[in-house]
Design goal:
Layout: H1 2-10, H2 16-28, H3 34-52, E1 58-59, H4 64-67, H5 89-95, E2 105-108, E3 111-114, H6 115-128, H7 138-147, H8 159-169, E4 172-176, H9 183-200, E5 207-211, H10 214-230, H11 235-240, E6 246-247, H12 248-252, E7 273-276, H13 284-292, E8 299-304, H14 317-322, E9 329-330, H15 331-341, H16 345-348, E10 351-352, E11 362-364, H17 376-385, H18 393-398, E12 402-405, H19 410-429, H20 435-449, E13 452-456, H21 465-478, E14 496-499, E15 513-518, E16 524-529, E17 535-538, E18 546-548, E19 551-553, H22 554-557, E20 562-568, H23 579-586, E21 589-596, H24 599-607, H25 616-621
Parallel strand pairs: 4-8, 4-11, 5-6, 5-7, 7-8, 9-10, 12-21, 13-19, 13-20, 20-21
Antiparallel strand pairs: 1-3, 2-3, 14-15, 14-18, 15-16, 16-17
Adenosine-5'-triphosphate binds at residues 160, 177, 179-185, 223, 227, 230, 369-370.
EC number: 5.6.2.3
Catalytic activity: ATP + H2O = ADP + phosphate + H(+)
Binding site for ATP: 177-184
């Protein structure tokens, strides 16, 4: 077995890490009989391989995909590998020295886990599935009525009000919704409600707002500020709502050089209410650590879009939790929510015959206030989301805010790039201001740069990040918008960069975007607007790892939005091209989306729904 795994590792079919882990397991299972040892070694390599692919475990029910085209075992046959008969695997794994409690691997419900990940899954399911308080409360009903005053058709269910009612009565709740469905607005009203309840009892609440990345935290800060400005809340309530969001890592307290946080189950966080935005980006391990550090008395509200790309690291926690939306509320919960909101949820919504704790703690917002019936972006996002590729073609002609181009329509792309990036480059040529006005000038430049973005699916290749960045630089240089001469080295004025590594000391995080500008003395510095809302500058030599960012991957664009988004899909199919990737890219566009893609690739990607192996749904269903 090790010889086969070594062959796969040398052919780059599995990672060195997968092979070395299998080697270790092979040594540790020497006491097992030969068949069991071979199977344990095989399972170790592929449990590790699957983690690298984002799966929490190696699901034996889906072993065939390893042998399929593009899989690491393509060209091999399961029956011909030196493994015991398939039907005997559970017995072998149960008997192995390396499988079980206190051992490196676990086997449960047909899934092989690295033990740590099984523990994460158990911790997350135990901590998430806290029953809602389903008693009725006339005070809560009237507070909700005041905050969500009905306008228009009051028979139509106002899901924002239902979401607030769910979150007000659940220790742990999830509000999912597509772009512009009012997640921030709803949570701001909910916080106002919780603050009013606490103030009536002469208590104060320690509320924290967090997001997985610095960029997403900065956006949450801005959108909470926007929601506060548009809602007419009393001064006393407004004052008690935090306006500054931070990253989850900062909240938990990163210890430099160590893979643990300052806050954990023995050193709990001090807070009463925690709001986590962009929860789809939170992987299983981070979710487990966050939940472990959360005091039992605290209220947790997870906000996110279940249809977006899952986290970069293993797991699809938000997607797994939100699969319970389909189930509907339990009878008791539907009745309570009807009493609290005035909407007939019992008859107008699915009610589950088999109640489940998680289903009672979720609300899916349904209506987008950003994308109305005239929005092609909204229609396109919905068609992609339900995998209806055949609904897409008529949309291109019908709506002005979406357009489709072939990949070789380079002149059109060039014109968009010059118009999109020309604005901030013109702006930075204007006579620079000084002092505080200089900061304002920088802010305008960064804002202008962030209005337009090129998104790609892949890192490599001519339609990947590197190839496109080079192409854009050449186009901008041809028009003298940037100066790419040798003396500048990589740092020409106007070069935009994205940080790709956290540097806690510098306060720069993966995903932060800055632009190279001349400071007041004419020296080159890279300017960033960071999560604290202030403009910071750095010497080029002091930046952590970074890349030019005229083009970025859809993965990196999560948590950001751009007025005009140009997305490119490559000429050949690739496993990263999925429905979630296309949906995430489309929904980064606020006002206009231009898609450069071969139609057959778009169609195939839309039909390719990501399935991440995990046992979380089954664990939650059992609660
Ligand atoms: N019930 C409502 N009636 C009218 N406008 C609303 C309503 N709810 C939200 N909006 C408006 O819709 C826009 C989007 O709302 P909000 O920012 O709360 O949504 P979101 O789901 O957090 O969006 P994002 O996709 O940016 O995360 C805002 O301009 C907000 O004022």
């Amino acid at each position: 077995m090790l010889a086969l795994l070594n062959e796969l590792h040398r052919a780059n079919k599995i990672r060195p890490l997968d092979y070395y882990f299998a080697q270790l397991i092979n040594e540790l299972s020497q006491q097992d009989d030969d068949d069991t040892q071979a199977l344990a070694t095989f399972c170790a390599a592929f449990a590790s391989y699957e983690l690298g692919q984002g799966h929490v475990c190696f699901d034996l029910a889906h072993i065939d995909k390893l042998f399929a085209s593009g899989g690491p075992l393509q060209g091999y046959e399961l029956d011909k590998l030196a493994l015991p008969p398939r039907a005997s695997w559970p017995q072998h794994l149960a008997a192995s020295q390396v499988v079980g409690d206190g051992r490196p691997m676990q086997f449960e419900l047909g899934r092989v886990y690295l033990s740590r990940y099984q523990q994460f899954e158990q911790q997350v399911s135990q901590r998430l599935a806290v029953p809602a308080n389903i008693s009725n409360s006339a005070t809560l009903a009237s507070a909700l009525a005041e905050l969500f005053a009905e306008r228009g058709n009051s028979n139509e269910i106002n899901w924002q009000k239902v979401a607030a009612a769910v979150a007000a009565t659940s220790p742990i709740s999830v509000i999912s919704g597509g772009p512009g469905t009012g997640k921030t607005t709803t949570v701001t009203k909910l916080l106002a409600l919780l603050i009013m309840q606490a103030q009536q009892q002469e208590q104060s609440l320690d509320i924290r707002l967090v997001a997985p990345t610095g960029k997403a935290a900065a956006r949450l800060t801005a959108s909470i500020g926007g929601a506060l400005a548009s809602l007419k809340l009393s001064e006393q309530v407004t004052q008690a709502i935090p306006v500054q969001a931070s990253t989850i890592h900062r909240l938990l307290g990163v210890i430099p050089g160590r893979n643990e946080f300052r806050h954990h189950q023995e050193n709990l966080l001090h807070l009463d209410v925690l709001v986590v935005d962009e929860a789809s980006m939170v992987d299983l391990s981070l979710m487990a650590r966050l939940l472990a550090a959360l005091p039992a008395s605290a209220k947790l509200i997870l906000l996110g879009d279940k249809d977006q790309l899952a986290s970069v690291e293993a797991g699809s926690v938000l997607g797994d939790i939100c699969s319970f939306v389909e189930q509907g509320y339990s009878q008791g919960r539907a009745k309570q929510l009807a009493q609290l909101t005035g909407f007939d949820l019992v008859h107008h919504h699915k009610v589950s015959a088999a109640p489940c704790v998680m289903a009672d703690n979720i609300c899916q917002l349904q209506k987008s206030y950003r994308f109305n019936e005239n929005s092609g972006i909204g229609f396109l996002a919905r068609a992609v989301n339900v995998g209806r590729a055949e609904q897409i073609p008529p949309l291109w002609d019908k709506f002005a805010d979406i357009e489709l181009f072939a990949l070789d329509q380079q002149e059109q792309l060039k014109a968009m790039v010059l118009a999109g990036y020309g604005c901030y480059l013109e702006l930075l040529k204007q006579t620079s201001a000084t002092g505080a006005r200089f900061d304002e000038h920088v802010r305008q430049i960064l804002e202008s740069f962030n209005r337009f973005k090129l998104l790609v699916a892949l890192r490599e290749g001519s339609y990947g990040v590197a190839g496109l960045n080079e192409q854009v630089e050449n186009w901008l240089s041809e028009k003298n918008l940037i100066s790419l001469n040798q003396d500048n080295g990589p740092w020409y004025i106007g070069r935009p960069v994205m940080i790709s590594q956290n540097d806690h000391q510098a306060g720069l995080f993966n995903g932060d975007i800055g632009v190279c500008l001349a400071n007041e003395s004419g020296d080159k510095r890279i300017y960033f607007e960071l999560a604290d809302g202030k403009v910071h500058h750095f010497l080029p030599s002091r930046l952590p790892t970074h890349q030019t960012v005229f083009a970025m991957t859809v993965h990196k664009s999560q948590g950001s939005e751009f007025d005009h988004t140009v997305m490119m899909l490559p000429e050949a199919m690739n496993p990263v091209l999925t429905r979630e990737l296309v949906y995430t890219g489309i929904t980064r566009a606020k006002k206009k989306l231009s898609l450069f893609a071969p139609v057959h690739i778009l169609n195939q990607a839309v039909r390719q729904k990501t399935q991440r192996a995990s046992g979380l749904i089954e664990r939650l269903a059992a609660k």
